[in-house]
Design goal:
The protein is built from nine helices and 18 strands. By secondary structure, it is of the alpha/beta class. The longest helix has 13 residues. The structure holds iron/sulfur cluster.
């Protein structure tokens, strides 16, 4: 009899010895297990802004880690050597347990642990083991994901992850052509997490050759309708199988302008030389300094998460 994996929207059904679309989840002795559980292919300390999260523990560092694997196949993947099975299946990786990661986070002055770089959905059992211990010790947890959750995964993961960055890559046709995926589970997850008041920021990598202004405006309208408040629009650069030319600064600027009055309060440029400061949505005072330059300042402009000039609440979790 086949057994179903519920880690993502694919819901693969597996016979003995078979692996799912991600190549990470596999059926062994009647159970579905995660291959090379706990073997990390990346472990680093990053500024939290690199996830990108601009409204969550701003200015702090985060212990960032990845096991290999992904459930999509984006032709432009920026991390294909650890996400795509034809590359990562020969990598050894180092086995690291949850207590060691938690002590490393404290040692390196990181108030959070981030599950990032590849797709944590396909190794969510390990992520949840680490996140559970991290939260019990007072650390925050961050998931950077393509957002193709199953409903079961969303309900399982939500209590243990404090902040999310979800990629919304394009419309349904873009997902089918470029990613062997679907936009629907991503939009459903965004709606669920906003409804649960989770901290959420969304990222879209803008491809000048693929995303025209109408498509970008349609994405903005979908995000605004779901109550998303922070959107990172980052420049595409050719990588992996994608050879389209890099997105120009002027095109990114034009797209940001096109969505500026559509109801998303905080829209940022990414992979870009454009300014990345935060402005109060009510009085337009600058409340957080330009993220391109460390250290990040907000001590005089933001008091307990509110704009010092007009007292407007600024979305996010700000260190006190
Ligand atoms: S994680 Fe997703 S792609 Fe991988 S086996 Fe489970 S349902 Fe399939």
């Amino acid at each position: 009899m086949k057994i179903q994996c519920d880690f993502c929207y694919h819901h693969c059904t597996l016979d003995e010895g078979q692996s799912g679309i991600c190549s990470v989840r596999t059926r062994e002795q009647g159970r579905i297990v995660t291959k090379a559980y706990g073997n990390l292919v990346a472990l680093a300390v990053d500024p939290v802004e690199k996830k990108p999260l601009y409204h969550f523990l701003s200015g702090s560092k985060t212990l960032s880690l990845a096991m290999p694997g992904c459930n999509l196949a984006c032709s432009f993947c920026q991390n294909y050597t650890i996400s795509q099975s034809s590359y990562h299946q020969h990598q050894g990786g180092e086995s690291v347990d949850a207590p060691l990661l938690v002590s490393l986070a404290f040692e390196r002055n990181c108030p959070s642990i981030s599950f990032t770089y590849s797709e944590p959905l396909v190794w969510q059992d390990y992520m949840l083991e680490v996140a559970s211990l991290a939260k019990s010790k007072g650390l925050s947890t961050i998931m950077v994901t393509n957002g193709t959750f199953s409903r079961e995964a969303l309900e399982r993961i939500f209590p243990l992850i404090d902040a999310y960055n979800i990629d919304l890559k394009g419309d349904e046709s873009f997902y089918r052509r470029m990613c062997k995926g679907s936009a629907k589970p991503v939009l459903d997850a965004i709606e669920y997490l906003v409804g649960k008041k989770a901290h959420l920021e969304v990222t879209t990598m803008v491809m000048e050759s693929e995303h025209d202004e109408d498509q970008i405006v349609a994405l903005a309208n979908q995000l605004a309708a779901r109550g998303v408040q922070v959107w990172h629009m980052s420049r595409y650069f050719p990588r992996y199988l994608a050879t389209d030319p890099a997105t120009s600064e002027s095109y990114l600027q034009q797209m940001i302008k096109a969505v500026s009055s559509l109801g998303i309060d905080y829209v940022y440029a990414g992979n870009s030389d454009l300014k990345q400061a935060t402005f109060c949505p009510r009085c337009h005072a600058q409340v957080v300094s330009d993220r391109r330059h460390a250290p990040i300042h907000y001590d005089k402009t933001l008091k307990e998460g509110r704009c010092s000039a007009c007292n407007q609440e600024i979305y996010g979790r700000w260190p006190s």
